[in-house]
# Entry
Amino acid sequence: MATYNHPGIYIQEVPSTRSIQGASTSTPVFIGATEFGKIEQPTMITSWNAYQTAFGGLAWYAMVSWSVYEFFNEGGTVCWVVRCTDTAGAKAATVTSSTLIVNAVTVGTWGNALGVMITNGSTALTAGAQTPVFNVSVTVDQKQIGLSATAAPTQLSMPNALLQRYVLQNNLQVEAGQTYYVLESFNGFSANSMAGDAGNFSALANKINSQSMFIRVPVNVKAITAGVRPTNTTTPAALKGGTSPNLNFNSATALLQKVQGISLLSVPDITTFEKSGDNNPQMTQGTLINQELLFCEQQHNLFYVIDPPFGLDVQGILSFKTGQGSSASGNPNALSSDYGGIYYPWVYIYNPISASNVPIPPSGPTLGRYAYTDSNVGVWKSPAGVSDGALLTAVLLDQSISDADQDQLNPEGINAIRNFINYGNVIWGARTLALNTEWTYISIRRLFIYVEQSLKQSLQWVVFEPNDQTTWSSVTRDISSFLTTLWQQGGLFGATSSEAFFVTCDASNNPPNTRALGQMFIDIGLAPVYPAEFVILRLTQKTAAPDSGG
# Structure
């Protein structure tokens, strides 16, 4: 206490009302495989350029790269990335064609389907003759991906199913007189393109590595002052030796307990998970998804945006979500949680470098719309509809969803992505996986996460304060001020603040026996704004009034 011994003016600064700061709502974490980067080190990413520096470029079968790319394209501003450990020590497929070494961009058996062609840089001369300028092409044989000139496409499982769909959707044609498709082609190299210092990339490697989504050329092991042109190939040189990874998603997810400011979760590489000897990947994927949902429920601050397995039709995704798949070929584990939402189907985006449409899981662009909606409206608004749910960079959907299809999907909490005339591809669902009606809608669950985390972070000062009327009053005032602002912004329903919320922290809910235990209870009730999911236009025929004859 201050003492006053001489006459004069004394100044005291009186503490003002403590404000409660809103928690972050639109910062996701992407977990999975990347081209390179630190393993199990959560890294904040603020742009696509920052991602490329830390984890590499767009890489086939590394779905985190495509998801982050689309997150920023669709309105996201900041995210975190965690690269998983591969406990299997998998290898990327590789091939040495004369003086050129080529590796698949990521590990896995998918690279074993690729081939590399070395051809003349201009119109071919007589057989065996080589021009100084040469081209490098990435190929895939039609038999490897179940295609034939005389038969319908063969139904394949991952990973070759993804390559098959890529070839079909981009209308690639078999080379004349051959059995392979050219996926990518890089032109205009010479012997000098192979030269470079030891430990550095050659000019050829720099061009291919910056533009290809399928292959990478390693650094020169030793200095090459006079490059040697690789010999032309008459047939593609096959990449070999790719083995299946075993990504440790659980270990990477556990690291999130120490990361602050995150609120959303995406694990897109679960959809491509392949483990050696796994005869039922759908069951494995369902198990992994449920483990991530359990983590979100335990943490209380994360909402999991789930990707479905690739290539499922409507009945297939219904079976996967409800756990009705047989143990031999499907997912027997139902997905049910109010801390997650699943979106269907996969979408195609345009890759400007390869000028092709690429299939990717929907969580990346969807989370971009989450961030866009949170920024422009608020967390209480569903990230769906022809405005906030418009996927501006999605050029195609893997499955076309009709009203009859969504009649089956919507009650099961499967959020459809649909194409509408005049609007394009839009998110047309806003439900969680919850079975109880209290948490049916994503916006309601995320609103409560927002309020809970905001109060938890901003009320730390209350711990060890006297459990008395003064503290109760301060807490009630601070929380009421925060909720009033939320109500005024449109986040709560009610004509008055008393209709929108209540806060109780007094002797009625803090009796002597609980105070003796060191416990303080704060009861809060919210009236959330529910989305208008079903808009019913009720029209009637208006009959003209009879003429009075006056």
DSSP finds 13 helices and 20 strands in the chain. Residues 94-238 form one domain. The chain has three domains: 28-87+246-439, 94-238, 459-541.
